Amino acid sequence: MFRRTDLTPANRPVLQPDEDLLQVQESVGLYSGKQKIPNYQNGAIYLTSHRLLYISNTSASTHNIALDLSSIRRTEYYAGFLKSSPKITLHLTAPSSSTSDASPRNSVSETTSPAASSAGTSRIGTPVIKRQLTNWICPICSLSNPVPEGFSGAARKEDIPPCLACGIRPDISVLEKAIVESGVSQLSLDSRQGSPHPLRSSSFAPPPDAPTAGSDGGKDKGKGKEFVVCPLCTFHNHPEVPTCEMCNTALPTSSTATAATTKSTPSPPPVPEEFSKPIDILKLSFRSGGSQEFLTKLKEALVQRKWILRSAPAAPKPNEITKADKDRAEEARKPVIGIAGLERRGEDVRKKNEDVMGGAFEDLEALKARAADMMQVATAFAAQFPDESLPFHLPTIPTSHAPPPSGSTSTAFHHTIARQIADFLLSPIPSRRTYTTTSSSNDTFLASQGGTITLPDLYAAFNRSRGIDLISPSDLAAATALFETLSLPVRIKKFKRSGAIVVRSVLEDDEKTERRILGFVTRVRKAEAGDRNWGWGRGVTAVEVARQFGWYLGVAAEWLEMCEDRGSLCREVGGEGVLWWENWFGRDVKEVPGWSGQVVEVA
Amino acid sequence: MSDPDQLAPPSSEPTPPTEETSETSIYPPHYTFPPFFTLQPNLSTRAHQLSLWSTLLTTYLRHHKIFRLKIPSDLSKPPFSNPAINRSLRLEDAKTVLFEGLKEAGVVVEKVGGMEIGVGTGGVVQRLVGGTKKEEEVREMEVVVWWKRREEWAAEVLRWVEESGLRGDIVAIWDLIHGDVAYFTEFHGMDIYVLRKAIETLEKRGKCKTVMKGEGEEWASVKFY
């Protein structure tokens, strides 16, 4: 049911090929039942055609979670009241083999042996349930509130949970008393059962398909029917009910046991601790609006049930072979050499492409199904006719990943754009050629631009890769300003003199750029020292530096001036323009390379 | 600027008792560094540059016994330019070096002749003529560079007077500058204006008195006490 999601460098979720992003909402918190889930209170929720993804703003890599839409049974909406935010309540079905097959990844956990899973259950399940069973009675309104998990008696006053009905924090003694009492009642219950841990731990031990194991103390067996006895009020509940119908206490049901079993098995991306236990009711709290739109989109997605398509067979390929084709195939098999052979081969390729394209354009569904084939053909064409007008190959972005801007969600839109830009700059270029003179690690678009790209260039390249659904310059400016807030791996730098803004990697700071430039200037000096200028070598021009690092001239000039500001370079303004030298002012004479005590003859 | 070769002591003569300067040590290594002739925009780099320049200027002027500089004509000659590498300071930069650089180094640059000129006016001065501002081109301006402070010169003269046993005697200023008696002193061949100022300092301290005024400053005589 719950799973971790993979993240892009920009902390956006990695979507599966046929998955579409439908809606993004920032500032969302998660509740399990009525309890806030710690560390999942400030984040973005992504609704895709297949999943709900939650990514925390503060620590995206550790706190993210994905939920298959297939496991949502129904939704409820709460519009919010005064300080209470609007919430969407999701009633989740307990995962079984029939509901969780939306994703192939789950198959690993389902095929694990019952023995292994029950071992995991008894480890994880026991303390969780024990806590949930402890309730305290509010002294003001006498509501029975659950004691939060992990609650310790030594907590501060602020840590005491307020009453769910009246919001008053009780005295610590009330809680302590409740905990002690529940311990006593459990003990007495245990002693009645006559086994040390019969109630909770053993009730999970048997696999769900064999519930008749000897020690399931909490369950009564009727005629073909099981009841679950409430541990608090001893009411016999229906086995499917998650909480006691009398006193609303969480029940140790067989379905939750199954969920725990499934989740506790080790699987490659481990589920975060907060979601390792079964959650029946998940609430999304929308702290900065957008709940209505989200609910609409969610309902649409739930109606469309796109995840079912994934298991559907692909559209049939038009591979009925006609008689003429057969003949041609026969002919093709004959060894044909020379020019005729080349022509024949060319014709075959053309024919094949014609089939692929003709079939693909017949209708859109078929096009989708044959997208991979189309890509191959397109790539082959591109290889055949190298397009010299394109200065570089751009990474492509699926445009459907950005919802269009609308008044209330424009911040979320900019967040999305900012993350997309980061992805765009840092994802590898699908390119055969590189167009810059430098050869070092040109695997990303940003690197191909010398690690620095101006906003106008970024704007052009980014929009070109989007193709349609272009963004406006102001959107780009707003999005780039968010890099730091979203802790993306790119940063903007504003040049002092021109005020121009460039984007560069977070790993690249002024110092590193300075070191690179200085290294180049020193190399030039050493290579051309000789007798020139009394051994001082020569200065470099901004053009040389731009060419060396693959920068634009303006960018190179700005970096050089930055080096000057930092004191590592100095300038010579002459008839040939500005030449840049290492800064030898204020250094010891012995360090000065060219000085050998020559007498300067002055007329 | 007067021809330095004329004033430099012949090489066969024993070296003067003051600090020794040879041709090689006049110029800092940076004198061949091309950016040396571009005023650096970075303030800390510029501070280093200006201090190198003021050292070069004072050493050069002292070596060649140059007291006066004409602006702007002298600012295109060495040391403000280096023909060997074909670089020279722009006039504006040369003025900055002369006025700001030397001021930083504690050397007084005193205007003694020509018209008022400021740093950065580019040889053009604004003055009020009949209520309207008029820009006039300034042809020439003369400054004295006090590469030795006035008190130092005064002490130098006084020491020489005592060493030569001339205390109580009357000495003509012409003799101090051109006469054989003071041939090996540093003030031999010095600027009359500078020497006059030094003697005025001594007069204030009661060490000497101008006893005879001639037709020109050079013909005055001074009695030392």
Structure explained in plain terms:
The complex is a heterodimer of chains A (603) and B (225). Chain A contains 18 helices and 19 strands. With 603 residues, chain A is of the alpha+beta class. In chain A, the strands form five sheets. In chain A, strands 1, 2, 3, 4, 5, 6, 7, 8 and 14 form a nine-stranded antiparallel β-sheet that branches. A three-stranded antiparallel β-sheet of chain A has the order 11-12-13, with no helix packed on it. In chain A, strand 5 and strand 6 form a beta hairpin. In chain A, 29% of the residues are buried. The model of chain A is unreliable at 97-132, 187-224, 255-268, 387-408, 431-441 and 597-603 (pLDDT under 50). With 225 residues, chain B is α+β, with helices and mostly antiparallel strands. Chain B folds into two domains: 4-144, Orthogonal Bundle (Arc Repressor Mutant, subunit A), CATH 1.10.10; 150-224, Arc Repressor Mutant, subunit A (Orthogonal Bundle), CATH 1.10.10. Chain B is built from seven helices and ten strands. Chain B has helices at 4-7, 23-26, 43-63, 91-104, 150-163, 173-178, 192-204; strands spanning 68-71, 81-82, 87-88, 108-114, 124-129, 132-137, 141-146, 170-172, 208-212, 221-224. Chain B has a three-stranded antiparallel β-sheet, covered by helices on one side. Chain B has a three-stranded antiparallel β-sheet with strand order 8-10-9. In chain B, strands 2-3 form a two-stranded antiparallel sheet. In chain B, helix 3 (43-63) packs across helix 4 (91-104) and helix 5 (150-163) crosses helix 7 (192-204). The chains are: A alpha+beta (603), B alpha+beta (225). Chains A and B meet through strand 18 of A and helix 3 of B. Chain B: InterPro entries: ESCRT-II_cplx_Vps25-sub, ESCRT-II_cplx_Vps25-sub_N, WH-like_DNA-bd_sf, WH_DNA-bd_sf. Chain B: It comes from Ascobolus immersus RN42. Chain B: Keywords: Protein transport, Transport. Chain B: One of its GO terms (biological process) is protein transport to vacuole involved in ubiquitin-dependent protein catabolic process via the multivesicular body sorting pathway.
